[in-house]
Amino acid sequence: MTTNLLGSSLVGLLLAFASPTFAQESSLLNASAQSTQVPAAEQRFNEMSQALRELNFEATLVRVSGDRLEPMQWLHGTFPDGLEAELIVMLNGPDRRIVRLGQETSYYSQLVEQSYSLTTDVTYGLLPAAFYQDFAALKPHYQVSAADRGVRVVGRETKFVRVLSRDNDRYHYGLWIDNDSGMLLKMQMTTPQGEILEQLQVTHFYEADSVPISLSDVRGVQRPPRLLDSRNRQAPQFGAQPQWLPDGFELQRSNHRLLAQTRLPTDHFLYSDGLTEFSLYIAEGDVQSLPNLGVQGPESIYNVQLQGLAVTAVGKLPLNTLQRIADSVVLTAK
Amino acid sequence: MTDRSYEQLSALLDDAVLDAREREQHLDSLLSDTEAQHAWGRYALIGRIMKNEATSATPVDISASIAAQVAQEPQPSNVVQGRFGKGRQMVQRLLKPTGSVAIAASVALVAVLTVQQTQPVMPEESVEPAFVTNPLGGRSPVSYNTVLESNEPTQAEIAQQRRLLQFYLLDHNSQRQLSLQAQQLNEQAQQQAPEDEPTQEQRLSNDN
After folding, report:
1. Sign of the CA dihedral with B140 first, then A65, B147, and B90 last
2. Do A253 and B179 touch (CB under 8 A)?
3. Domains in chain B and their CATH numbers?
4. Which residues form the Anti sigma-E protein RseA N-terminal domain (chain B) (predicted)?
5. Chain centre distance of CA B98
6. Which of residues 58-97 of B touch A (CB under 8 A)?
7. Mutate to test the interface with B, among A132, A193, A290 (most CBs of B within 10 A)
8. What is the pLDDT along chain B (208 residues), one digit of tens a residue?
9. Radius of gyration of chain B (CA)
10. What pLDDT does residue B25 have?
11. Cβ contacts of B92 within 8 Å, gap of 6 or more
12. At A199, phi and psi to the nearest 5?
């Protein structure tokens, strides 16, 4: 009897001992299964996009393009009722601000008539819109790689992630992501050859528990009028189209209009690969009168005269890519 | 003019010349003498100021000097005059991008301006001399790469081209924003669509 009792209690003990380790093993298995599904570098990118949406923070950063420095204040938070708020203030030169509340982004300028609002849930102007989404959307044409350790940025330990184009026809990004919060602390945009074109460097970062106080009065601010498409848009008229595009670029919009103040009759095509966009403008060659030229920079521009047409390509792409696209334009129909 | 004639002028201004014939004489000499006319103007102004009647809004006539200045200026080229509005407005448009411009646009603008400050490079030359002749002395912030260059353009043509390039960059930026907005509105419409479907079905069933 006693031995039986002893035996059963022993079994019970063993069971009690074994079950937690069992659970641990299975959770380990799950974790390893997840990491094989989503590589670590991709996970870090996704953590960053999540942090950009969810963190409450106050930051100061500097944007560097060439020899130009732009310091800015950057605040983000989510109100108790779930409304996301973001505020970016230019600290040098004319007072310009971007305020985003949920899906309404407003651009304030000192000149009232130059202020406007956009319906979009990402703040256009600081980071590529794709950085607010999971990497999955970029996967067909970009890849991420991660270093084990990043350097210290703003006194914080970071992880380094690179976003590379698969075909070297696009610019690359280097991202330094905070270990603790997932916040983006530094960014470099480079040519495929490694020349740095644009950098963001956070110089002060404070993560808060709730919405930063400076954001609390943003909700009451009057919003400028919505930016609208011009009403008299027409379909493209010159019947010219590019015969080559880098993989993944898709037509977003196309129309025929008079180009801003120049009153230049122009066909316009906007293409995007999910991370970057470029525009193709086509006008009559003898009216437009630009020489053949090309400039590579944060926004490259290339102009060429082809078959009596002036073809201009503009975008965040290497000059070689824009050149190849513009040179491939052919009259397909008239 | 003598002190005596200044006195006479002053008296005339104050309506203190009693004798009618003398007054006519003074007026005649005033009308024939430009120096006297200037003195008259000064005296009148002094009088007004002392009586506190002068207004600061009194226009100062500088049209003659401006006309002379303008006549000396070289004739601007037709290219610049033709397409863009008048001076100040044009400058403001250039400095301040119009309505639909984001922060990124200003960066692009600067990039173009900086590039344009350098002289055009002939294709057979290497890129380096362009930096040396850069009037600002600094290196261009963007990699500078002139693919081809036609005949040497005039200053006015370069200004015109610079402007056109800026408009392309600005337009590209506003189109990106409009595209972003269009995507968002599209998503919203798609999200609302499933909610609308049941009501449509209800309507259909009602019709039946």
Report:
1. negative
2. yes
3. 3-63 (1.10.10), 78-207 (no CATH)
4. 7-77
5. 14
6. 83-85, 93, 96-97
7. A290
8. 677 777 877 887 777 777 888 888 878 877 888 888 888 888 887 877 777 766 555 445 666 666 777 677 665 444 443 333 344 444 333 333 333 233 334 334 444 333 332 233 333 333 333 333 333 333 444 444 444 444 566 788 888 888 888 889 988 998 999 999 988 888 888 887 665 444 443 333 333 3
9. 35
10. 83
11. none
12. -135, 145
Of A3-17, A43-57, A257-271, A276-290, which one has max mean pLDDT? A43-57
Contacts of A312 in chain B (CB under 8 A): 168
Q: With contacts defined as CB-CB under 8 Å, which chain A residues touch B97?
A: 114
Mutate to test the interface with A, among B172, B184, B185 (most CBs of A within 10 A): B172
Measured CA to CA, the distance from residue A57 to residue A75 in angstroms comes to: 6
Q: How far apart are CA B102 and CA A271, in angstroms?
A: 19
**Identity of residue B113:** L
* Structure tokens given for A203: 């110089």
Structure tokens at A256: 């025929």
The residue written with tokens 């350098």 in the block is B118
> Would you say residue A269 has pLDDT above 70?
yes
Answer yes or no: is pLDDT of A83 > 90. Answer: yes
Name the DSSP letter for residue A82: S
**A270/B contact by beta carbon, under 8 A:** yes
CATH number of A240-331: 3.30.200.100
- Please identify among residues 116-175 of chain B the ones whose CB lies closer than 8 Å to any CB of chain A: 138-150, 153, 157, 160-161, 163-165, 167-172, 174-175
Tokens of A155: 């006194």
Name every residue whose Cβ is closer than 8 Å to that of residue A32 and which is 6 or more positions away in sequence: none
Choose which CATH entry (2.50.20.10, 3.30.565.10, 3.40.50.150, 1.10.287.90) describes domain A40-220: 2.50.20.10
**Beta-carbon count within 10 A of B203 CB:** 10
Domain with CATH 3.30.200.100 in chain A: 240-331
DSSP conformational letter for A245: -
**What secondary structure letter does DSSP report for B152?**
P
A318 vs A9: which has the higher pLDDT? A318
Please give the interface size between A and B, counted as residue pairs whose CB atoms are below 8 Å apart.
179
A262 contact residues in B (CB cutoff 8 A)? 83, 163-164, 167
Judged by DSSP in three states, A76 sits in strand
Q: Which residues of B28-43 are buried (b: 16+ CB within 10 A; e: fewer)?
A: eebeeeeebeebbeeb
What mean pLDDT is predicted for residues A91-100? 92
Q: How far is CA A101 from CA A57, A92, A216, in A?
A: 15, 24, 11
- Closest residue on chain A to B112 (Cα): A295
Q: Are A165 and A174 in contact (CB under 8 A)?
A: no
- Greater model confidence, A289 or A43: A43
What's the pLDDT at A333? 67
